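The following block was generated as part of the benchmark described in Methods. Ligand: zinc ion.
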Amino acid sequence: MLIVANKILVGSGEYLENGALLIEGDTIAAVGPADAVAARAGSGVERIAFEGTVLPGLIDAHVHLAFDGGADPVAALAESSDETLLSDMRSRAAQLLRSGVTTTRDLGDRNGLALRLASEIAQGTTAGPRIVSAGTPATPPGGHCHFLGGEVAGEEEIRALVQRNLSQGAGVIKAMVTGGGLTKDGPKSWESQFSQEELAVLVAEAHSAGVPVAAHAHGTPGIAAAVEAGVDTIEHCTWMTGDGFDFREDLVQKIVEDGIAVCPAVSPHWQMLPRFFGEERAQAMFELVRKMADAGVKLVAGTDAGVQRAGFDGLVPALSFYAHLGLPNSRIIDMATSSAADALGLGDTTGRIAPGCRADLILVDGDPLEDLGALKAIRAVVTEGRKVDLSA
Ligand SMILES: [Zn+2]
């Protein structure tokens, strides 16, 4: 396939104007001036001339395909058999793909279903984005998301769960370092769930297999413990305490120095947060994300799709949050492409338009560096060199 376009995003905030890209199989074979690249394409090659912008396919670095994004995802999950759930997860994956997401990271499933779906998609029997799956997240008995089946007490059980996930193909290990709002009967969001030693064991077990660790952490002590344990990404990172927030500059500095990525997992409906948390508390939470951005933390985009009110087409609406904070569009697009790919360990595979990368692309009307809203006007999605049927 040869795609000739007015603009092709070839680097951070950098367009190639009047360029072309040549796709051979599932890979980008060449990118450059339209004439030169067109000359390389054989006569039988499908040609697409596009007046808009070509960008790398988007990455949603935090989803839960097992949750339905409805009013009570936990109840809906409990009522679903594995068979029904897997079928629903296939629809959700297809929805992600049609919204421009060509790679996603699933941070907590039940019974390895996201891992099964990931392999169906990899084999081409099901349409969907590439899925990096955590399998079942580790949590203490009764802890956050205990109903997913990953309850572990003590170091031996932690090692066994990590090994179980790895043996089923997990590409990341997820630890519920603190409580979370979704689990009404569990610890509070700011409360830590694991000891420092337990976290160290979990990280060592994952890292010895070359697999990164994603830490769900709201509370400041949990964030500190996750950093100390050497996790690779921190999810949410809201700096909560029992009665407010405790933003620690020294810890942020260490997050930057250690190259830990932070996925704030802000909801597509972030504008509604002041109504849920109160204006003052919501603004304080927003401000802390801005402070992390200003400090140079490697932020990546994710939506927590599947939890209450977060559907599987919400990545672009969620990105508007970062524009609201004043981040430049170039950085926001990086958060959902190259930076996210790096954080998922896929920086050489996807998230960039360069020769050798997988042909994961979106074609949009307009100029997203000028107006982020242009990302909503998706005209085509290409995943591993294949055009996606957007009419489904
Ligand atoms: Zn989550």
